[in-house]
């Protein structure tokens, strides 16, 4: 299935780039900012309209808030890894087990709504792929470029990469067993996760609160890419959920 292939490929590609270009911290940060602009647009233009198109969706906002809170809890495990905070901590501060659990749960939940997406290359999937690249880049840089990394550490590192790569496909597999009527609730939770991650990246203050034109430009580029996809994507499926 093309969706599973793309999900795994986005992680492997990101890790590969991180392993070889991981020392370029600015590149990782710029990738994150670009993906945040893309993600917040997907969230507001695709995910939320799909959530709120459902009849009796007035209480779905609670699930969006639940997604935000869930991501805050996961970040206690990952120490803000999802928005590039790995360099703020020594490697000992991030327990690989906690990091693994946090990233796995995060990616697993994102995969659940993919089971009921009617288009294989949906904007929601592209949002996840776009978001996977910078996270995998940082993961690759963290796992394979650590100074203190003991010899022979590539084996557990490969295991972490494999688990992260399979998390969303496994979530998607589980999603097939849920009632399709629950789709808006899962989308609402993931919408909250997306909203939290992208807004933290976008609104993180710059040094001395100076205007960072590069950052603004990257966010606009990410937004523009998502809007372009929005224009070319067929939105008939929104009306199907009742």
Put the structure in a nutshell.
This protein is an all-alpha fold. Helices cover 69% and strands 0% of the residues. It has one domain.
Describe the protein's architecture and organization.
The structure is a single chain. The protein is mainly α. It has one domain (1-147, 156-235). 69% of the residues lie in helices and 0% in strands. It has 8 helices and no strands. The longest helix is centred in the N-terminal third of the chain and has 28 residues, at 25-52. The chain is globular.
What is the element layout, followed by pairings?
Blueprint: H1 2-21, H2 25-52, H3 60-78, H4 96-111, H5 123-144, H6 154-175, H7 183-203, H8 213-232
Helix amount, in percent? 55-70%
- Total number of distinct structural domains: 1
Low-confidence stretches: 236-242
Q: Would you tell me the overall average pLDDT?
A: 82
Principal-axes geometry comes out as globular
* N-end to C-end Cα span: 27 Å
Taking all Cα atoms into account, the compactness measure Rg is 18 Å
Major β-sheet profile: none
Count of β-strands:
0
Number of contiguous helices: 8
Indicate the structural class. Answer: mainly alpha
Element order: H for helix, E for strand: HHHHHHHH
How much of the polypeptide forms β-strand, as a percent range? under 5%
InterPro entries: ZIP (IPR003689)
Protein name: ZIP Zinc transporter
Subcellular location: Membrane
Keywords: Membrane, Transmembrane, Transmembrane helix
């Amino acid at each position: 299935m093309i969706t599973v292939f793309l999900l795994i490929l986005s992680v492997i590609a990101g890790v590969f780039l991180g392993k070889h270009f991981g020392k370029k911290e600015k590149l990782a940060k710029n990738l994150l900012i670009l993906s945040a602009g893309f993600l917040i647009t997907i969230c507001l233009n695709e995910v939320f309209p799909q959530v709120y198109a459902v009849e009796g969706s007035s209480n779905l906002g609670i699930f969006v808030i639940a997604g935000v809170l869930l991501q805050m809890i996961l970040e206690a495990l990952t120490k803000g890894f999802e928005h590039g905070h790995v360099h703020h901590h020594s490697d000992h501060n991030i327990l690989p087990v906690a990091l693994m659990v946090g990233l796995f749960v995060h990616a697993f939940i994102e995969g659940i709504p993919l089971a009921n997406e009617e288009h294989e290359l949906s904007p929601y999937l592209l949002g996840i792929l776009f978001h996977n690249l910078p996270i995998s880049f940082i993961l690759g840089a963290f796992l394979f470029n650590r100074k203190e990394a003991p010899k022979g550490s590539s084996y557990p590192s490969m295991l972490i990469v494999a688990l992260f790569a399979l998390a969303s496909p496994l979530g998607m597999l589980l999603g097939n067993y849920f009632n399709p009527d629950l789709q808006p609730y899962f989308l609402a939770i993931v919408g909250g996760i997306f909203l939290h991650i992208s807004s933290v990246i976008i609104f993180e203050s710059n040094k001395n609160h100076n205007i960072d034109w590069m950052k603004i430009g990257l966010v606009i580029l990410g937004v523009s890419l998502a809007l372009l996809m929005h224009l070319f994507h067929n939105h008939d499926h929104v009306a199907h959920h009742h």
